[in-house]
Amino acid sequence: MRRLIALCLVAVAVQAQGGPPQPAAPAGSGERVEEPAVRIPVQQGDEVEPVRVGGQVVALRVKPKNGPVYYLVDTSGQGNWMRRESLDDGLRVPMFPIKTWD
Fold first, then answer.
1. In this structure, are residues 87 and 71 in contact, taking their beta carbons and an 8 Å threshold?
2. d(Cα 56, Cα 33) in Å, to the nearest integer?
3. pLDDT tens for residues 15-51?
4. What radius of gyration do the chain's Cα atoms show?
5. Cα separation of 48 and 39, whole Å?
6. Which of 40, 88, 76 is nearest to 60 (CA)?
7. Global pTM?
8. How far apart are the first and last CA of the chain?
9. Is 81 helix (H, G, I), strand (E, B) or coil?
10. Which phi and psi (to 5°) does residue 80 adopt?
């Protein structure tokens, strides 16, 4: 009985959304697929300074009018920006000598 109810609920949900999803057009089909524009909101009066490595923007330094400086960092290189309070990643490699020769 529970399976029948679950099956009916799934059927109603699929019907309400207009049927099963249609497959996306192949990349070379000539149809242009518009992607949503990504907008990073910046308040009026904020200073935004890009940090570039090899000509590519890897981080944005944002200095708000009222508040501490923070960074928007592209960690994957795909445009996925993450907010960080500093560029310090917290990794500390020990750099003390284990053995020295005179």
1. yes
2. 25
3. 666 655 556 555 555 666 666 666 666 677 888 898 8
4. 25
5. 14
6. 40
7. 0.46
8. 83
9. strand
10. -90, 100
